[in-house]
């Protein structure tokens, strides 16, 4: 009988749940930010197509906030008040809108139509695709 060499099997068990949870949190924040950017593009397009604005101030004031990022409106001239949103969203929250004093009235009573609701409700598929793509990374 030949003497054999006993191969040793080494098993290492690690708990990576904290790392996985951290990566998931980072991805959620990235998703909210990317959805915010896409929402900003969509809402400004709707405002332009419906010819809701006269001066462009409302369109330029569309902005969003996530838990970690405040995104300023685009191309707001220095002579106008800073109408982009300020503050901080809660964990896993995305706040969208404008601080222009007449934004709410335009959304609710403008004869040319609303812009916030369609930018959110009519594009849920786009937002879902963004989330899916980030989680697949």
Describe the structure.
This protein is mostly helical. The chain has one domain. It contains 5 helices and 3 strands. The protein has helices at 17-49, 57-61, 103-109, 116-121, 124-136; strands spanning 63-66, 70-71, 94-97. The protein has a 3-stranded antiparallel sheet, with helices on one face. A hairpin with a 3-residue loop joins strand 1 (63-66) and strand 2. It is elongated, with a radius of gyration of 24 Å. The mean pLDDT is 83.
Structure characteristics:
mainly alpha; three-stranded antiparallel beta sheet; single chain; 137 residues; elongated
Question: Secondary structure elements and their pairing?
Answer:
Layout: H1 17-49, H2 57-61, E1 63-66, E2 70-71, E3 94-97, H3 103-109, H4 116-121, H5 124-136
Antiparallel strand pairs: 1-2, 1-3
Helix pairs in contact: 1-5
Task: Describe the structure in brief.
The chain has five helices and three strands.
Number of DSSP-assigned strands: 3
Mean pLDDT: 83
The string of secondary-structure elements, in order, is HHEEEHHH
Q: Outline, from the CA principal axes?
A: elongated
For the terminal residues, how far apart are their CA atoms?
Answer: 54 Å
Low-confidence sequence ranges: none
Q: Count of DSSP helices?
A: 5
Largest sheet: 3 strands, antiparallel
Strand order of the largest sheet: 2-1-3
The proportion of strand residues reads: 5-15%
